[in-house]
Amino acid sequence: xxxxxxxxxxxxDFAPKGVQFYYIYKSLAHPETNGYVAPxxxxxxxxxxxxxxxxxxxxxxxxxxTMENDVxxxxxxxxxxxxxxxxxxRVLVKRSWSNPDELRADLEKLVGKVDRPTSIAxxxxxxxxxxxxxxTIASGVLPKLELPEQMRPLVVETVQAGGEPFYVKLRAEAExxxxxxGEGRLYLVFHLDPLYHVHWNNxxxxxxxxxxxxxxxxxxxxxxxxxKVNVEADSxxxxxxxxxxxxxxxxxLELTVQYFACHDEEGWCKPITQTYRIKWQAxxxxxxxxxxxxxxxxxxNNRRPEMGNGPGRNERRRPDQRPGMNDPPGTANRPIAxxxxxxxxxxxxxxxxxxxxxxVEYNAASARLMDADGTLDLEQLKENDRVMLGVTNDxxxxxxxxxxxxxxx
Amino acid sequence: MRRIxxxxxxxxxxxxxxxxGAVAGLGLAQEPRTSESPRNAVDSAFQRKAPxxxxxxxxxxxxxxxxxxxxxxxxxxxxxxxVFGCLT
Lengths: 409, 88
What we know:
A: 22 strands; B: 2 helices; about 40% helix
């Protein structure tokens, strides 16, 4: 939520004039950003609300949508919409994307101007880093799978057995052809939920899953095991890509996963077995994952990897086939040079004046920032720093190109 | 004269048919783009689905941060700003 500081300032100004404010916590717009994954219960969604309060330092109270997303569906189904209601609950203003400047102007018309509007700087919002454990556990130890384009999230349900929380969350996505024609690839990814502060135990057997064979689908393989990892603990997601032929899309797949999870602070390490049900139905509330920094499948390069392994990693490419050699500058594989104009750490964006002259605002939420001494935080960048940018082919909801990496020179 | 015009029109039609066939054959024809950008899709769905200005919002159930249930109608009594959001 990029607008939180501006909204908090508006709240500070208009709450004394009798306006009440609420954030409504809804399904994740971009799962996996900062490691956060979709909750599977109301208790977990309320944990997300607490995490949002902690990381964003919000004073405006939060309301939490139901797990069926009734409020989101009932109020227009947009991820960051805003409404002004009168005292009887009638809509005075509705906006599909929150816009603090317009909201302030609307409220000024409604209840009058504020003498001295609150500045964002004066709020001193006590924001905390999201997912702080992420920096203490190894990550990036497993290569990411090359994925087909335009994967659609599927509805996944948990099957409760025993009282253990779902430390690991399954996200299932289908190639469009799988839902359309009944034949295609199914992507399964198991994420550790950062809210439980656990990590994989790589001294034990790797995560494995089994899909109960049924008449709903034929799978090239109905079981899989994650690759062995050489470090004792890590937090990388465990990914699989399966070829599927659908027989009866009304019947869900039932998948059982086994893994060892460890919680360092609580001092336990235990085997967990849990079951999920995957429906052959696109999840309208599944959000879109920002996959800026992973290989993408294309029409020309649509190789089908083996389950649990990246494709073609041992293949040698001719020099002219190396990524980026034939790409124009600024595309995914050819870095571009520029100078930093401004940084918005809250919004995770950076504006850069490119060598050719234009200023471009990038989404840096998932970018890897580095200089000669190692990794950087966005806040460490300064105006006029010379940078080399690696960008993805993706754009965020506001049309900004998603940055893959930034190297300060 | 009218006959000549008709013949010319017919000729043009055939040239057009031939050209479009050739373009399609060469793979130059593109399928019409029907997909709108994700942001525009959200906008148009929102305009269609959200309650209109002047309409009362439905009395939906939500939860306060402490887990207690609340109906949207219970929030009334004051002008109210609602903003949707999440951790990501």
